[in-house]
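Hey,

The postdoc asked me to send both predictions to you directly instead of through the lab channel. I've kept everything plain text so nothing gets mangled by the mail client. Protein one:
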Amino acid sequence: MINHKQHTSAFIKLVDEIRPQIKELTVADLNKKINSQHSFYLIDVREREEFQQGSILHAIPLSKGIIERDIEKYIPDFGAEIVVYCSGGFRSCLAADNLQKMGYHQVASLQGGLRAWLEAGYPLTYQMTK
């Protein structure tokens, strides 16, 4: 169901260089936020086809290719709390870094991404996108 891609060394290096600049959230912490009905935005930065294979409940699909262009349409408040995730936690690190550069100051990337979410036994939801 989830595509486990091999990442290039240059891509891994890029992510490793920005990782200290961003906040990462564990799947347990995200699950607590969801269960406590804590107010935050959950953004799935995977591609539409990946999103349609299953996502975390209430996630907004804004792929890595368009998130910087469209984020303000969904979240005009630069102080809003945002959690971004992807399949393995790499693309979401890049997205979190870019959102911070754009002025959002409460952004976190889901550590381990959707893969870690599933490995922890948390559920997926299935929603179609336009």
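Protein two:
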Amino acid sequence: MEDWKTKISVLWLITEGAFLAHQVLALIQPGVIARIMAGEVEGLKIGSGLILLFAVLFLVPLIMAFLSLTLKDSMNRWANITVGAVFAILWCVDLIEVAETTSAGVTLMILLTVVAPALIVWYAWRSKQKA
């Protein structure tokens, strides 16, 4: 029965990798570095709140990868369903906002950050059916 936990943990790591790749690919687009140096990222003013938000977005998938292997089944399911759904929705909104204005590579990475958490929710939900 541990198989679903391993799959979910790997999917969280894939989510993290896709998010990191998205950030790197976004940085190498023309004009992005200049906007960052001017104090703006994705239309938002860079400040401590925005930096904290990005730190949380980087840390949550890593923490969830660990918790997916260590939490008891019921808590594990609900944590993954809840956090996975939040991340899937968050990245889906980002995908809709930037799909037309960014490169295909960045769009592909954002798409992966939507698909992986959606699969997390699906595997966590299916594990409930098996228990």
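Summary for protein two, as requested: The chain has one domain: 3-130.

Thanks,
C.
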